[in-house]
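Teaching note: in complex prediction, the entire set of molecules is handled at once rather than each chain in isolation. The prompt given to students was simply: 'Predict the structure of this complex.' The entities are:
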Amino acid sequence: MMKSPVEVTGLTVVRGGRPVLTDLDLRLQDGVTGLLGPSGCGKSTLLRAIVGVQQVAGGSITVFGEPAGSRPLRDRVGYVTQAASVYDDLTVAENLRFFARVLGAADDRIDAAIEAVDLGRYRDQVVGRLSGGQRSRASLAVALLNDPDLLVLDEPTVGLDPVLRRDLWQLFHRLADRGAVVLVSSHVMDEAERCDRLLLMREGAIIADDTPAAIKSSAGADDVESAFLHLVEAAA
Amino acid sequence: MSTRVTMAVAVRVLTQLRRDHRTMAMLLVVPALLVALLWWMFKDAGPVFDRIGPALMALFPFIIMFLVTSVTTLRERSSGTLERLLAMPMGKLDFLLGYALAFGVVAALQSALAVAVSVWFLDLDVVGPVWLLCVVAIVDAVLGTALGLFVSAFAQTEFQAVQFMPVVVIPQILLCGLLIAREDLPDTLHAISDVLPLSYAVDAMEHLTRSSSTGEVWADLAVVAAFVVGGLAVGAATLRRRTP
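The expected output is the structure of the full assembly:
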């Protein structure tokens, strides 16, 4: 069997004395994978574990054959948190210039990243004065600076204009076409169709891992939301 | 360790400060104003200002930098930017040194202004070299930065961070020789004051105003610098790439 870029085995995470993920197994495929599930089901925790910023209670996670979060991965993995992790008192361009220096990315990547998230008009605006959607795009741009091999995005399209949302999904697919593995979480089921593969998650467990078409047909449902309901009811 | 990353952090912190005009103005002007206030208080009371002026020039940069750093670093922790940086190829020490460097630059300006006001306008008697007074003040400020970075690890909110000041800073102020000479403290307290960095900072300042020999000053500075290095090292240990 071919080695998958991200392999999660027996992952257990306990937060605040409560198990969030228990003995979770997962093999990520190439392309754009959507991690879908309701708020609070453990999506962010799983993403944090894959990036290597989450304390884990057990199990192993390897990314491109290296332990998650290890030094060789730090400039190969791009991670965008749900809350925009950029400096509110710097402009978009200043934020990107700083992160580009940290990553050792060339200066021309800054403009490319700003264009990719369509913030050209706001490049010299202080991030704190931008709208929520613009701030999260600025945060996303940071992750695009160094062409990561694995891009982990936690709800990057929440609250965005539909046109922009479509553009971002096209961007994710372009990145995947260039060879990046893209993992995107969302609690909005209608984004499922935009993914090459889906991971449906509920209460800390992966309840489906397949292409959108296969998930729908095996559940005999017309859309992913119905398939999700079907899977939950079948398991109950 | 990477000079590129350290410099990137320092430049970024200074850019943020430059944008915050109010903070910048307060950082630069307040210590000088406080020294002037003190001079005014003791204007008709004999040579008191000459005695405690130097100690205060050690105190102000230390206190202010302690506060500014603990709050700023905490902001960095709570906004998620620290987590993002630590998931990048960023050494923990690069991060801390970048902060220390940026605040060191601010401290240099702040101290230069306070020293200039004291020496030229308020006639503070400094027997030793004035530039060395600035150096001591800068090292004190960096000490405040190092301790501020350290305590920010133990605070969950900015509210808590500010309350570390009475815990970490005020005992040092009480025992540093400002209120009563350290030799006159009860033995136990004297011994405690011997292991507090601010005591050495104040000693260095007092030497400078009383004597032109600089040997003791450098010895005191070395002790303060050792605390800075220790504070940064412990601060680096409190930065966690993985969080619960």
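Point out the following to students. Chain B touches chain A at residues 4-5, 7-9, 11-12, 15-16, 19-20, 79-81, 83-90, 241-244 (CB under 8 Å). The two ends of chain B are 26 Å apart (CA to CA).
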